[in-house]
Amino acid sequence: MVVAAAANQPFTLSLWPPKSWRQDFPDPPHPNPLGKRRFRRQRLGLRAALVEAARPKEAADGSSMQQHQVQIYRRGGGDRTEDLQAEARAMLRAANASLYSPELLAARYGSRPIKVVGRALQILIALSWFGVKVLVDQRKGVLDRNKRKRAAELRSVFTRLGPTFVKLGQGLSTRPDLCPAEYLEELSQLQDALPTFPDADAFSCIERELGLSLDSIFSSISPSPIAAASLGQVYKARLRSGDVVVAVKVQRPGIEEAIGLDFYLIRGLGFLINKYVDIVTSDVVALIDEFARRVYQELNYVQEGKNARRFKKLYADREDVLVPDIFWDYTSSKVLTMEWVDGVKLNEQAAIEKQGLKVLDLVNTGIQCSLRQLLEYGYFHADPHPGNLLATPEGKLAFLDFGMMSETPEEARFAIIGHVVHMVNRDYEAMARDYYALDFLSTDVDVTPIVPALRNFFDDALNSTVSELNFKTLVDGLGAVLYQYPFNVPAYYALILRSLTVLEGLALYADPNFKVLAASYPYFAKRLLTDPNPYLRDALIELLFKDGKFRWNRLESLLVQGRKDRDFSAKDALQPVLKLLLAPDGEELRILVIKEAVRITEAFVLGTVIDTYNSIPDLLRALMFNGNASGVISMSKTEQQNMIELRDQVYRIWGLLRSSENFDPSLFQPILQVLQQPEGRILGGRVIGGITQRLAARLLQQVLRAPATVSASS
């Protein structure tokens, strides 16, 4: 599907429909007189059109979305007040939008037993037949073998049962604590494959909700929907005001009634599961309530518009991310009018490549944006299936459909990064404890039995480096652990896992060797190196130091990966560590740094001596050192090689810093300032003293021709 999103762009109209079109629409009753205007418009002969727009051009004033400068308001900052007033009017139109309330549902449907029983029987028959098949599989001992088949059947059942169960299935596809891997995969394929509703009903809804006739709003509108979902369908139109191409989403008639009844019944089933099904450890009723609230939020299109605006403000500061704008004057709780986006679905690889674009570039954009959503601002798109991600002709990744959004708690954002550090370090005890901070486990749950399960999975999975690990393998393995123990996976975590899994799945079609963790690693490295948050500073120290020794290879790896992130800067990379080192509570780190400074100084001094010795001609070297085969320094070849490698590694790291964008030698000024203070002079004296002792020990060893090595604890 190709759609268009440019304001004030030229496009071609083909006149439509024929006169006979009006005969296809019977005259339904209209409680609102405005509904009759639609039929007056028919008699006048609406010129509806399917619009094919040219590529958006740069604005006349040359403005474009630059980093941290997002154009939120279509007409510029001068009309911000007008835009806010239009938004306020839209909110008034949505004042009576439904909210999820179990009490109200119980009051409404408790007095309608016939309707409730009829729908309950329909659901019960469909699900019971599925349950019988699963029970037979269990009795025959083929439950595991038939999991994939039964999962596909459940997907089909949910589709037949309608919008609520389509949404429920999509929600379950993100819950590894509730469903085995086979069910997660099948339900993640669940699409909104539902029939469209009559166009006459949709057009009447637009007029009724906005209080205007259709032909006074649009100069053209598509005669039939160009997309349909479980909750509504979308038309393509052209506004009379501003001559702008827009997408108009109209809510499915009677959807509130259908969803309300279904959630009333499902919630009752949740109570039974909580009471009688021991294998499910999560609070099913609480999960249903949370999910129902999200679905009801989707029914309020004004809220979706506000979500889109917030998402645009946070993430469309990147030139490769596009978020469509909202037209508040033509938006209500059941009608949403937004910019039309010209693009191709992200899972249509051939069409994307035909435009000269690369799927992997777009996937990488999606991964970076998803990581920012999860770990930077915590506000993220909760329904990231391929239909909601478009590739524009300019190579931008456009996000659509902001009905379901979620937020990551601030504490959890940092805990996730710490969890990655613990995974890299294979510190499974710390990984298990992370689940408290991530709110996966209640603090009264003993994590001791979980540690062996984590070790068994990750020791096998991490045979290669983390960046080479397939993300789906990681999610499936972790999901198996979660499924076996009393985990309660928060919705935000399950949804972001699904987002990254979807992106990796799209990328694998273009490159079977693609690894989403490899694409994510630069972001994690940049955050660890640059974020001043105390939790992340501790995580960085934990990653770089082990058993009292500094792991220069880890720092080099972080710098190499961090430099791949467009926001990385050497100055930002050093500041958090410098501040921690010079802080009053940094004594423990200072001890480690002093020890490492001594080791590095020794590597530079003795490495230079070794290089000088090796550069002397053999004949002259024999004369100068009396033919001493052990060389100028009493040190084994292995120790000499390790020392030179350490020195060279420090040189490489310094080169990485110097070649980084925005590198400024003045970033070392805080060190010089501190060294001038009494505490700094003490620190400098300790470093010089340690170096002196180390070199004196080496000199004494050389004079006495002691055995080859000096202990690292000297």
Automatic annotation (TrEMBL):
Transmembrane stretches, start-end: none
Entry's family note: Belongs to the protein kinase superfamily. ADCK protein kinase family.
Keyword Membrane: no
Span of domain Protein kinase: 220-550
Species lineage: Eukaryota, Viridiplantae, Streptophyta, Embryophyta, Tracheophyta
Name of the protein described by the UniProt record: Protein ACTIVITY OF BC1 COMPLEX KINASE 3, chloroplastic isoform X1
Keywords: Kinase, Transferase
Origin: domain of life: Eukaryota
GO MF annotation list: ATP binding; protein kinase activity
